[in-house]
Amino acid sequence: MVNDSKSSPGPTHGSHVDIAVDRVAKIYAQAIIEAADAAGCRREVIAELGQLAREVLPKVPQAEAVFGSPKVSAEEKAALIDRIAKGRMLPTTVHALHVLARHGRLGILAPVVHAAERLADDLDGRRQATFTTAVPVDVAEQGRIVADVEKALSATLTPTFVVDPGIIGGLVVRVGDTIYDQSVATSLSRLGGRLHQRNIHAIQNGEYSWHT
Predict the structure, then answer these.
(1) Which domains occur in the chain, in start order?
(2) What are the E-state strand segments in the chain?
(3) pLDDT tens digits for 65-79?
């Protein structure tokens, strides 16, 4: 059973509120993970919730507004959930959405999903990592980069790739609160050098996108 204080503020601006939202999101994420584990469908449930939060709702602003509105009753939100999810998502996923609706927390679905993903990674012994490169890299190159960094750090990573033209050195890797660049290990240095050459090629051929 989920038990969180209704006095906790909702998702508004400000770092204090962000901390409060994060705390509440973790409570629901823990409950979702436990329910999904009991049903043997943890990854599937997280994937379905993530798809709803990041792909479906942004394309349907009316539904997103209903989810986040305190003026819409839990019953109306429940009906919308059934229209969107029933028959398309696992029962555990639908149940999780109904719990969020009953507690007035559908508006923080995205933070809940993020918290659930982090918790699932922790349970699986994975660490979330952000790879920042100066130019986009294709899927095959991403796989090679992740494999090399995992070997260098002796860790299993869940990667997110970000493009930042200001990273002229080629590659910066953030794992948790630690930032690594190509000076940290030989393999990172080799990767950074390879990506640096791609940067030069892109500049020479007018493919580089500068951001001011």
Answers:
(1) 15-122 (1.10.520), 125-204 (3.40.30)
(2) 126-133, 156-163, 171-175, 178-181
(3) 999 898 999 899 999
Q: What is the pTM of this model?
A: 0.63
- C-alpha pair distances (Å), 101 with each of 9, 67, 108, 171: 16, 8, 10, 42
Write the DSSP symbol of residue 153. H
- Measured distance between the N- and C-terminal CA atoms of the chain, rounded to whole angstroms: 49
CB count, 10 Å around CB of 167? 19
Supply the DSSP string of 164-179, one letter for each residue.
-TT-TTSEEEEETTEE
Q: What is the mean pLDDT of the chain?
A: 79
- pLDDT, one tens digit per residue, over 29-83 is 999 999 999 999 999 999 999 999 999 999 988 888 999 898 999 899 999 999 9
**How many angstroms separate the CA atoms of 125 and 121, rounded?**
6
Sheet holding 156-163, edge to edge: 156-163, 126-133, 171-175, 178-181
10 Å Cβ neighbour count for 115? 23
Residue 158, strand partner residues: 128
